Queue: 4 jobs
Job 1
Amino acid sequence: MGGRAERFDAAITGLGMVTPAGVGTAASWERIREGAGTAAVTVPELAGIAADFACRVQGFDPAAVLGRRRVLQFDRSSQLALAAALEAVADSGLDPESWDGARVGVVLGNGIGGAQTWETQHRRLLDSGPRRVSPRLIPMLSANMTAGYVSMEFGARGPSLVTATACASGTTAIGTARDLLRSGACDVVITGGAEAPLTPSLVAGFSQMGALSRRSDDIRAASRPFDAGRDGFVAAEGAAVLVLERAADARARGARIRAMVSGFGASADAYHATAPDPECTGAALALRAALADAGVGPDEVDHVNAHGTATVINDATEARLIREVLGDRALVTSVKGVTGHSLSAAGAIEAAVAALTLEESFVPPTANLEVPDPGIELDVVAKEGRETPVEVVVSNSFGFGGQNAVLLLTRS
């Protein structure tokens, strides 16, 4: 993607978050601001796996938010998505009863779909036979239903899309949502990402790849982005949803604008199924495209909300990318030290955090960064967050298959 002649600002007027850091935007942001440690718990269902812990959303009662009937019909990924969407739409001040639903779109990132439903129902098939498989299996399993159920909830009859670019999915969704506004196809887009991948099969698969931390003796310190002792990511679930409108429309109705999505870039490494290109060629294309799209120079970026998975190779490669394209001026943070890595939801959670960083002029710390990797020559915020003027934030996401997506957010 290349630059465009005129910048297009999409206003973020609503935020909703359901994450391991907390249920609701305020609770999630508070724990991320503190950076006290990884929000991980031991998961009984993962017993026997080398990584038998994960970042679950604690204190979330889906029945209280959605009603018991829908809890029984929705996979957990859809439960998380809808809960975040309900908060975001309420936060935006828009009234779904009065909006033109044909002009409202939904774009959510979800790479795996109803993983928990699939694993539960497959076990039921093996144990009890095909007649015991739920007739709701297919809609609960299908990844598109993450957006489908949100569109049904709000009467959003515009485009309803799910993006699947692995761990870049949430970021890709937000960039796609902005393009729908820019094209005139929609006036409002509900966008973000959700994932609920904490099943034995999936966690075992990541563990067998060597991607997960095995620090089971100290799980609060397990996710250590950019630390010299990092040994892998901590699997997580979660969701974040943003409501986007054209900036002029949001101002005209007197909305509170939390931040602007001003640039987006996407690319592919065309290199390897799981490893990043060590030369950063594809990732640099995405980052430079986001800068050009926003009309922002590399030296104008104040903060990078890094992908920062806490895997040895990915953190080192991303650090090289940031230094080569942006230099060493920008403050860098990875919130995965707290939240773990929620795959398709991660980019959406981090975009929401980027908006809050701009809104409050506060850069959160990178949890568990005790001994900085000497090969990473960046100003990575550790220990305590920093109160500092922030006008431009870059949020990076990189996924398996070499799929890269970068958002550039600016102060409203």
Job 2
Amino acid sequence: MPNAVSCTGSSAECSAVPSFEAATGTLLQQLVLAAGPLTVLQIGCPYESFTARLAAAVSENGHGRVICCEPETVRAEAAAAAVEKAGLGRYAEVREGRPERSLATVPGPVDLLLLGGPPESFLPLLKLVEPRMLPGAVVVAHGLRDVRALCAEFIAHVRFSGSGYVSLPLPFDGGVEMAVRAA
């Protein structure tokens, strides 16, 4: 699969992310199409095409918005350029800077939370967003397989039976944890 995104407003026409991230991209696209989230919050943007692919799926639903918070300037600019090139600016916004600062102005409720970036930040970021998550909200954290020690508290939090989540590890794309907020 190509590394560049080529979207024309339809997620079906959107070239996928690099092949080792293809399963996560497809999972996210399916979640957006099935659940019709109003607010998709992406924290960290490992590939600029992730944001554009999410925006393409949101556009197919005809409503909603993707907000990407990316601390690295180069990645934020690349994600914003991919969204604009795909003509999906109406459905996505890329915010550059530390996610902790951007989260205060993200409208709620957050229906789908995608966690990327440093795995040790997953739990603190989730806790910042949790007050704006309703039952049924989905959390997807990717790239966990080789860094389990760095995100052990996050995994324990979403897998603990009293946490209010139903969680499942998925064995693709470097390890993915998918959790649904139950309460």
Job 3
Amino acid sequence: MNTLGQRLAVAMKDAGHARPADLARAADTTTATVSNWLNDHVKANHVKAEQLFRMADAVKLDPRELLFGALGRGVGERGTAYMHMPSEAHLDVWQAAYELVAHILAERGLEVGYRREATLGLMAHDLLMEGVSRGKVARVVMTALP
């Protein structure tokens, strides 16, 4: 499963959504959007964070795993691909990601719950590790907020 569409199709079936229309209803989006994702008309760098989170929630899959695939695991294994302990070299990135998310939430006066905040922190960490600027990471985080 190398493409976003292939990963979504498998996850969609695993979650019990037989048709794109079923997933569209569960993800609060349109059937056309789901079809575009399934047919790989959407590239990872053009995915809107809000749609990614809704689709991933609807198919019960980690958003990063849906978008990028399961990293560092064998074929066919299920579960979270991002369960790892941070090394000391990455603690500064974890801290920066946490502070960035906390600052944005405080600035907007939002309380999103620990799961959503943790997911946002993980997303921010991954983007920072990829070399994405703090400003761009902040914009991505803000698009994922209500």
Job 4
Amino acid sequence: MEAQIFPTQRAENLLYALFDAAGDGCHVMTAGAGPFTAVVPFHNTGSRTYLGQGIEMVDVVATTSLALAGEVCGVVLRTNAAEGLSRAWGWRLGGAIATPLTAGELRRAYSTDCLTGEALPLEPGLYCDDAPHIHLI
């Protein structure tokens, strides 16, 4: 029998896994399912993670747990690189499993109009990359 994971624990597991996977630099995590979205800016330096000014971890966990309320959710981690470039990774979350998206899957998600299904261009300087595996405890 699989142990029940509470929404706040699911959110914490995801956040810490992404903080670890992101590496050094400035990042933004966006998670959502249905009408709820959580946007979490953070900066990694060495083994430390800093949230945006005035942002408290308890609030981030609460907002992220709402965004992950659906059984299947999407998560994108965007990293701001030098010279106006940004890398994006994505995952599909189902229960306690994070399935990495390929660059092509994420590109299609980023560049498809959700209402019409028409292809849209990516933002200048944004490139999609294959997401690494992350382990949600």
